[in-house]
Amino acid sequence: MTLNVGITGHRANALDEAITAELGENLDRVLLSLIGATRSLRESEPEHYAAEPPLFRFHTALATGADQIAARSARHHDFEVRAILPFSEAEYTHDFASGEEHREFKRQVAAADEVFCLPGKRAHEEDAYVLVGKAIIAAADIVVAVWDGDEGKGRGGTAHVVELALIAGVPVIHICVDRTNKTISDVRLLIGGEVLDPEVASLAGPKDYIHLVTGVLAPHGEIEKQHIAQYLAEIEQTTNWRIEYPMMLSLLRIKKLPRRPWHQGRVADGHEAGSGKSGDLDTRTLDAAYDWANFLAIRYAQLFRSGHVTNYALAALAVIVALTGLIVPSIKIWLVMVELSVIALLFYNTHWGSKGEWHRKWLQYRHLAESLRPLAYLKRTGLAGPPFRADFAERSARHEESTDWTRWYAASIWRQMEAPIGTMTDETVRKLAHDVLTEQVRPQTAYHEINAKRMHDIDHKLHEVGNFLVGGVIAACSLYIVVYFFMHDWVKPLTAPFVFVTAGFPALSAAAFGLRGHGEHLVTASRSISTVRALRGNGARLEDATELDVLTKELRDTAEIMLSDLNEWSLAYRERSLQVPG
Prior knowledge:
- This protein is of the alpha/beta class.
- It has helices at 17-44, 66-76, 89-92, 100-111, 125-139, 158-167, 206-217, 222-232, 244-251, 284-327, 332-355, 358-372, 375-381, 389-394, 401-416, 426-486, 491-519, 521-544, 548-574, and strands at residues 2-9, 55-60, 80-85, 114-117, 142-147, 172-178, 183-194, 197-201, 277-278, 281-282, 422-423.
- The strands form 2 sheets. The protein has a 9-stranded mixed β-sheet, sandwiched between helices.
């Protein structure tokens, strides 16, 4: 369990001495209240968090005034302090007057647990201050703003950072500076709206802080909590006897059946890179979370798809068994019993899949795995927040409640991940762009190209099967007409086989058509082709990206492209639950 807090506020030259003296006490109260609320949440919902005590991180640009006062307060209350500087440390020292101000900055940097320097340039100083504000917002779950509430004097100032935080869906604890009376007038919570006309919530006592922290760190609904508990209770199973779907692909000559189709590789063998590193960033926590979600998504996909294939096969088989009684009437009673058994098996298969929630688990676990996929590269920028934070914070109407837990879980992994440290240079930016291209964009482009062809081939082969069966019916009917007019004495013996073919083949054809319709293979192929085009354009822009803010925008686009495809896929399959064909 981790809580990240960021700070923005006026510099020392904008704060009266009386305000400065009072500010430290207010910051102490705010940080202690956040600590208390987080620990209270941990104690009230221990099943959702690790057994270790909560970790508190504080992100600050270490400017004079509010930033440095807050950093001292955070260290005093055992926060890990991460300094995010707009320039290299050597360049940033020019922002501080020689003498005690300069020495205090050096002390603050030395006392920080981590230091991250953005690649700001003096020639574009305002852009550098905007960049550091965005970096603090990206790192923070909650931003504390020491602000007079007035319109800002330019980009990168306190008012602008507050505005950017509200746009990003990050709650802002506003410590109100009253310049006229030289005092701190109020502490309130900003949760949306315009920067000069924000939506305000009370922050008067412990209950308000608990409500704030719960909204940021905890799953929101009982259904979500139930699904989280089920996810955490999953166990690793490397044997999956439901192999009907891979068998169908093999019969259609789409994909060769593995030597042991019932075997699924271990979770530990599943990670695509396996190094636990992305650049200099430690990604072991993220890799483990992705591997587990991906493992479960693969398992439940095969369970659901195989159950789906079996249902259509059993429905067709029930018709064939019934028609067999026309050919072999002497065993009619036994065929009736077999038909009832087949129908019972069909209902049992549907019940088993519904009870096991194969459909929901497949969609949600895949959604979780793909939400985790781009996080390492976004994290390495130091400038991007998780792509789903605003969706979760706003409880967007575009997403059903039952999928929100995956965003909650992914956000929890995000805040646990290590943040980038060191100095971001032009070379670092190029290296990150190269890594994303080679490790994500190009492999995902290749995957969607293969997926588009495979989905098209499945639809085409099932269409061919259906056409063949319908052709068989036409041939049987034509033959029957010929026999009726030219060899009439043969008609009666052929009647039962004729009915078998003309009724049985359409049943098999309907099963093939049902598999086509339920699978929506052409729609999936079309989406994959669109994703390929979007990723190719994104990849071309990534190759040209040399500035951090440009690269960050393109990485957000990369994540958006992949998550948009995922959301469309989830929407298409949401209503395709396992059902009895009818």
